[in-house]
Amino acid sequence: MSVTPFILLALIYKICEVQSHEYYKAGFDYPYEFLDDEERSFREEFGREKRSNHPNCPGEILRINNGSAARENQFPFVVALMRWETYPKITDQFCVGTLLTLSFVLSACHCLVEGEIKYPHTVVEPPSIDILAGAVDLLSYTQDRKKVEGCGQVREAWDIFIHPKCSYQNNELVKDFGLIKTKTPFISTPQGCMKPKHFPADQPDHREVVNNMTENEEFCVTMGWGLDAEGFASSWLKTMSMTLKPAKWCKEKILDVTKDQVGGPDIFQSDANICALGCEEGETICMGDSGGPLLCGPSREFVGVASFGPGNASCGNDTIPFVFGRIDGHEYWIWAKIHNESKHDSASILNFHARSMVIMAMVLVIKDTLIL
């Protein structure tokens, strides 16, 4: 299998309220104004050299190994997926997820299946997965396993739902996303350390918006607990700044870097994938970041999950783009699944509007069939 399901090293950014494109057009120095005061005030000697002079990349900011240390409460929707066998330990972290409700997490399909990635999928045994939410440091994991409220809560997975078209065939990894339902809901916190990501069901133009973002090489961030280029793990959540790349560029670049590798070339499918490059030297996809969210533009729209690094040497190679599984255009499948599996769990439904439920029933099958 040439496509190695790697993972995104962490990115830095402060989660804030949704800002409109009018904010950007008003003359703010984006993305510099996208940073908060603390991020803008980091001393120059701590900065890494920019890999890219792309205008959408920010200036020098603090870098730790291949990413930036996230602050507490900065990304309250990001969760760590832990899979343990004998006893829980922080090295059990294997993927990243995004909290969509207090009971449902979105992650990469390849994180949640065993064996071949094709329908019908053989899913990982749900009880073997713990979800750590509301924490940036994995060192709290063993203590937090018994925690029922506050920051750093842990829940056992109860069920797993894979998009039926998730598959790896002919060197194409598509529809690389799925949902995890927790055994019991997380409990929201007044401290602000845990909060589901805003991801509306009713986004009729989302695919067109994301397509435009790729052509405009929009600025993005992603985050995770994955390895660095030297193979060392970090217990602290890290973030990474990136820019999207046009679909044609992604397809040609990935073909070029994998065509001579055993099992290659890897195929970039623009209807199912988007790709991006890190803004700083050494920022790459590495093991442990799969499933992490990709947030793009001034409003930090949730557009994809970390899927794979092309070929067999993308970790540490900042010239190779990172591939994300697109979730734009699949909002109806995601929220229909959450709704259907939550009929007796009203506490788990967040941001699910009544009008979206009606629309969903009419267009779900058609919409998901049209998108390859």
Q: Would you kindly provide a written description of the structure presented here, covering whatever features stand out?
A:
By secondary structure, the chain is α+β, with helices and mostly antiparallel strands. The protein is 18% helix and 23% strand. The protein is built from 8 helices and 17 strands. It has helices spanning 21-25, 37-40, 109-112, 141-144, 206-215, 247-258, 331-340, 354-370, and strands at 68-69, 78-83, 93-99, 104-107, 113-114, 122-123, 129-133, 153-162, 167-169, 172-174, 178-182, 219-224, 238-245, 273-278, 293-296, 301-308, 322-326. Strand 3 (93-99) and strand 4 (104-107) form a beta hairpin. Helix 7 packs across helix 8 (354-370). The two termini are 22 Å apart.
What's the order of the H and E elements? HHEEEEHEEEHEEEEHEEHEEEEHH
End-to-end separation: 22 Å
Q: How many helices does DSSP assign?
A: 8
Major β-sheet annotation: 6 strands, antiparallel, barrel
CATH topology-level name: Thrombin, subunit H
Structural class of the helices, strands and pairings?
A: alpha+beta
CATH superfamily: Trypsin-like serine proteases
Which strand order do you get reading across the main beta sheet?
12-13-14-17-16-15
Query: What helical percentage do the residues reach?
Result: 10-25%
**Beta-strand percentage range:** 15-25%
